[in-house]
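Entry for the shared binder. Reason: the reviewer on the internal report wants the predicted structure included alongside the sequence.
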Amino acid sequence: MKKIFALILTLALALTAASVPAFAADTDTIGKGGSAVKDVKATYSAGDSATIVYSVDITWGEMSFTYNDGAWDPDTHKYDASWSPKGNTVTVTNHSNTAVTAKLSYTAADNYTDIAGKFEKGELNLATAVGTDISNAPHDSDTLTVSGALSSKTLADTAIGTVTVTLN
């Protein structure tokens, strides 16, 4: 049995050594002054231009606001409260091969439903990036304002809500 097995292995080794690789290159032999010619071939393969690729950059401002309960106005019998924003802008840049619409919204946190947020535009319509340089990609910005009163007991940098950008 060992002899038969050894014979089979020897035959397999001999056949493998004599085989020609399937991807062997063509070989030409020429002498002095001779030349060889080889065709260069090409095949066209249609790209994936029918597939829509979405790629959008969102640049967030700091989204930080300071509430000032204001000074007493004896003429109106009210405090002139105000919000001061720091980085309240969102910029959307389109790198997609199709036009996109970005919808911006504000949602108050559970304990801060008395504070409303509103975007100036609320919707940004951006053209396709096809045919544009990266540095000139279609982009637009929107600005968030907040209103309502913030309790004096609120700690600094407390999350009062969230901003969402949704692509349509």
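Summary line for the report: The longest strand covers residues 100-108.
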